[in-house]
Amino acid sequence: MTWNVKWKRNQKVVSRVMNTASAVALMAGVAAGAAYAQDNQETEEKADQSAFQFEEIVTVGTRSQGRSALSSPAPIDVISGRDFESQADNDISNLLRTVVPSYNVSAQPISDASTFVRPASLRGLAADHTLVLLNNKRRHRSAVINFYTAGESNGAQGPDISVFPTIALKQVEVLRDGAAAQYGSDAIAGVINFRLKDDTEAGSIEAKVGSTYEGDGDNLLISANKGFELGSDGFINISASYGESDPTDRSVQTAAAAEAASLGFSDVPNPAQVWGTPRVHYDFKSVVNMGVNISDTTRFYAFGNYAKKKATNGLYHRPVLSRDGVYTFGENAAIIDLDGDGGETCPTVAANDLAGLQGLSANCWSLFKVYPGGFTPSLTGTVTDYSMVAGVEGELDNGLTYDISASYGRNKTGFIVDSYNASYGPDSATEMSAGAFVQNETNLNADFTYPVAMDSLADDLMVAFGLEYRREEFESIAGHLHSYSVGPYGELGFGGSSQGYAGVNAAAAGSASRSNIAAYLDLEAQVTDSLLLTGAVRWEDFDGFGSTTNTKLAARWDVTDTVGLRGSFSTGFRAPTPGQANVRNISSLLDAGNITLSGIVPPTDPLAVSVGGTELQPETSTSFTVGTVMSLGDIDLTVDYFDITIDDRISLSPFFDVDSPDFANLRYYFNDFKTNTKGIDVVATYSVEMGNGTTSFSLAGNWTSTKVKESASLDPLRIRTIEDGTPAIRGNFTINHVNDKWRALVRANHFGSYYNGHISFTDMVPGAEMTFDLEVGYNVTENVELVVGASNIFNNFPDEVPDEGLPMTTLLGTDALFDTKSAWGAKYPEFSPMGINGGTYYVRVRYAF
């Protein structure tokens, strides 16, 4: 049978299915005596599961008691926790990409730290232009700065949203509107608010295993959630998950490695250059959410998370025949005479002379003796993230509400590089710490609301005001000496630092911090039954560059009972992070087909100042949104147009050639350019009784266009990646049917064409693609559900990297030609928004109690 043949190719996955299913069954049996099916849980299981729900009450974008997404003056997507489960992936960034078309994230192979904490884009802007909240409280950003990505997020330092277990989420609210006047720095593109479950009794245990159609990327995820009563009037809800996955490989053999193998060199890696998703050794995530009433009008709450992930990804291959300063000096092998005090003289050996290399005496050292067929360094990252929020909220007799809270968050990303420092010759370490980056943030908030009765209004004027203190600290921790230094053989021309990824230099280690204070006033008035007006003003003062004041006005007018108009205008800002202003880094980059060492230094470093560096200033923005909301019987439809202009955008500068013993060129962060981003979001849902159940239809589409309006220094390649690095058109259409025991989901995903802007793949424009997802669930018992599904069921791939050499005159101003596919081994464009793994499938068992 075909089914059996398919599963024989994936015996590891089958074994995991059986083992995890048995584990779930065992846990279910132990808990069965005390567990029972909750009525509200059954309702949730059988409810309409469309990706965008309008009737849900949202708390983001308003400081009143909350309103439905349809009645909001700004566009808000509400995604249930169950929507995240109906997918093959385990990463929240990928899950959001599937259900929110204006949200883009791509694979980041060979992107150094960005491979482990991938940047994401909302409404065509950078990863740090979106503010992330957890239970309405600001999240700390990741320690990873995205040095080597393409597109709008190159140089960004955004939050890491992959640290939450999906089973912990009650719902996710995506505010697609500028909100810096309401929430402060970063909320230029919008706000994503993750709301945690607060059940007091219900719980569930899940196990999911999956793989790709190619038979690699086997993955496992085990999750659990349980709510408990806390005292007589409180709750504590605990969630945790554990995952791991094998790497994927979508590569072809490089020309350099193939040549070495044809000459008889042994131990040539095949493929020499691996392009795919990294191996995840482990990925543990946990969240605790709790609240308890202190009195009839006062409540204490606290929540937090702890997560730790370890993953490994390959770096650029070092070919034995042509890596200058490592294996070769020109056409000859790079050889060290270890007996340089008058002993035996080492011969001159051509790099392709296998017999000559094999005949080298003991005192004549070459890296060939360690890695005879070339080597591919690898980078292992360990990301540790934790946070804690605690506060007291309540209401006084006069209607004044208060929320006093404190939070602390920390993200640490440490690196181990498996590589070689050729300048140390035979004494080099091969596995060494490459240092770490740490981000610490502390927030203190005091938020108040007060209803003011006004006869001229249809309802009370809601006045909100508050204060905030925030402190950010970015720390660099030095790596092993061999990871960044130049050894004794550097004077002979051997390259220093660990190949592929240079560690944090001891001279660059240290910390930098910045604090700010803020005050805001927010007004919300239901002027008439059909007209809602809101306004906000926020003042913030930062160490280093002074203060900024931002405003927002929004309105919603219900023209009829079924049609409403809404719009907003706002100013915003994004403060440069202490990391962007102070980080130092050295890494290997591809420059017109050649690997070179490149450094990133603070903009106030003397080397940066010599080529134009100055102290960073905030980005500033103006934006407006206008749209319509229609309820046409069972059909809900929203259409919103947005326009965002950002001045003094912060990014990495072009490369500057400098005279430095550590690197050939450098970049630094600078305020350089202005962009205008505009687009249209369309969301529609429809639900109907069909057969023995309910069928829901949801359509979500986005068109976004970004143009660089002004720039003093950006090169044409960088401008092209900012403007076209993500698809202009994205969308999905979902059909979901639920009856008594069965449910089925079918989803179509559209990815428009885009520019794959990496230095090694110039002028490649992959075409538009369509993928389809399918999931079927069956309630085996009242408490146990079995689910099988697949994403990209037709195993579609993006356009392949071309085989022929490409002229680079268009953007880089050179006549160089090289075979892009075999030169670096990438079969598919590395920044593909649909991914490069093809089809994936999964099996999930869920026990609810």
Automatic annotation (TrEMBL):
Keywords: Cell outer membrane, Membrane, Receptor, Signal, TonB box, Transmembrane, Transmembrane beta strand, Transport. Residues 380-793 form the TonB-dependent receptor-like beta-barrel domain. Residues 70-191 form the TonB-dependent receptor plug domain. Its main location: membrane. SUPFAM superfamilies: Porins (SSF56935). It is a multi-pass membrane protein. InterPro entries: Beta-barrel_TonB, Beta-barrel_TonB_sf, Plug_dom, Plug_dom_sf, TonB-dep_rcpt-like. It is found in: Cell outer membrane. The lineage of its organism: Bacteria, Pseudomonadati, Pseudomonadota, Alphaproteobacteria, Kordiimonadales. Residues 1-37 form the signal peptide. This is TonB-dependent receptor plug domain-containing protein.
